[in-house]
Amino acid sequence: MSGAGNEPRVAGIDCGTNSIRLLVAEPGESGLLDLHREMRVVRLGEAVDETGRLSAAAIERTRVALLDYADIIKGFGVERVRMVATSAARDAANFGEFSDMVHEILGTEPELISGLEEASLSFIGAVAGLPGVRDPLLVADIGGGSTELVLGSPASGQVIAAHSMNVGCVRMTERHLHDDPPTQRQIQATVADLGTAVQAAGRDVPVAQAAAFVGVAGTVTTIAAIALELPRYDAEAIHGSVISYDSVVAVSKRLLSMTHAQRASLPVMHPGRVDVIGAGALILRTVMEFAGVDEVIASEHDILDGIAMSLL
Hints:
About 45% of the residues lie in helices and about 20% in strands. It is built from 13 helices and 11 strands. Strands 8-7-6-9-11-10 form a 6-stranded mixed beta sheet, with helices on both faces. The protein has a 5-stranded mixed beta sheet with strand order 3-2-1-4-5, with helices on both faces.
């Protein structure tokens, strides 16, 4: 089955440290036309930072999600599928075992892309979803295991510079934020770790050149939803919203002072983000401080859109 004008339907799968996401789409008049978009929190990268391996339980959670995704892909008559595996898989000694499982279910192997490739796909996805932003644009993609900083031109879609930092909301939580709520010493250790990472990123990415700053992925959109005081998670209200640095600081302090139960009770909070959102907020805050920006534009479009677009 194909979409409008006999163009093929495609499926992109983004398998990160915290979640695995599916986008089924076909070409539309102004880019991708979403047919199905879904996220499952499988925590593939659980303890990878410590063990260097994907656990059997994490692989099984991902396998169950992929079985459902395979049925959805078949139901839409998708012709092209691309699955990209990012930070957690890059760090895993037993990636081959994971790859075999994926091939058995999807008929295609997951691509183990580099941090720079991940950054490029994130930028392409973000640019496609946010027309009219100023040039050059700095994009931050905050994931579970890594964070990508990309400076590029929305007008041309070209990446000027990019850097992948081995810091993400799951990795930082497991490494530092052990108490609930975390102690000030744990928060300070996280900030110090992040400071080292962003300083290294700054040697590759001239962040001071950015005319606008966009944040993508679930950490940023969840923080935006909290800052906007939404009664429920509303992707349309979040997409393109502008959140000030002061609001990001206020939300991060609030999240880091709350217990697990208090965070879980927030109406916009996805259950899979409850225990890692505090670290994610610290990453966003630190990146904004380092880049010297006073606001972030939240985008619902990211690497997943970039993966799907690469198939067209």
